[in-house]
Specification:
The chain is an alpha+beta fold. It is built from 11 helices and 5 strands.
Length: 242
């Protein structure tokens, strides 16, 4: 874990805003927009919650939910090494919808600042910004150790389309901070206390490689294929009979 000895004043202010939420809530490919997510949550998927950020087809038979932190080294490794192939092979082909849920681990000031920037940016840039933070994680840690965390996160904010003033405003937005804290609490309610943690179709799974993910999702996808074939056969019979 990276220990930050020089927390910038701006990030310290953000963390002070974050503290009351810790006290109150702590007992220990196409990205869908917020309005679309609400519709999905009220629809056929039992695996989604309010304000989820989702990429992939809403009709995908497999839902992978990841609880992760942008300040978590293991999360960065997974996103940089495993996620790209998962996305191209399963998410982009309509087989899997992927959900990212914010969960504070690592340096809390960094995780909070990163989550807030991603949430303040336009919805369509959410996953791009999360990906950028994972790619730049080591650079962010290094700049933080040199007392330049504010500069690092301003760079992330600008990449997300936020000016420096908007970044400052974003860090004070308690409504958005509460939004991701609610999602984090949903994980704690399931006993989650580490990242990354994966939930596949409602069941927690220890899947940290693409092979291990495929072991879980392949049977689900095979069942879906059989069901689709049966439906197609029945439809064909009905057409012929008619």
């Amino acid at each position: 874990m990276v220990k930050n000895k020089n927390i910038d004043s701006l990030l310290f202010t953000a963390f002070v805003c974050f503290l009351p939420l810790i006290a109150s809530g702590c007992s220990d490919n196409k990205a869908l927009k917020s309005s679309e997510v609400a519709e999905v949550n009220l629809g056929a998927s039992p695996y989604l919650i309010k304000n989820d950020h989702i990429t992939g087809s809403k009709d995908a038979p497999v839902t992978i939910v990841e609880y992760a932190s942008v300040a978590c080294g293991a999360c960065a490794n997974w996103h940089n090494q495993v996620y790209p192939e998962l996305k191209s092979k399963y998410v982009d082909t309509g087989k899997v919808k992927y959900v990212f849920r914010e969960f504070i681990t690592g340096v809390p000031e960094y995780a909070d600042a990163g989550f807030m920037i991603a949430l303040c940016a336009p919805d369509e840039n959410y996953f791009k910004n999360i990906a950028l933070q994972f790619k730049r994680q080591q650079q962010i840690f290094k700049m933080g150790s040199e007392g330049k965390a504010r500069e690092a996160y301003i760079g992330i904010a600008k990449s997300a389309g936020l000016s420096e003033d908007k970044f400052v405003e974003c860090m004070q937005n308690q409504e958005l901070r509460s939004e991701y804290r609610e999602k984090m609490q949903s994980g704690k309610d399931m006993g989650i206390n580490a990242t990354p943690t994966f939930i596949i179709n409602g069941k927690q799974e220890k899947v940290f490689t693409l092979d291990s993910i495929e072991e879980v999702i392949t049977p689900i996808l095979n069942v879906t294929k059989i069901e689709e074939k049966v439906t197609t056969d029945i439809t064909s019979i009905e057409v012929v009979s008619g």
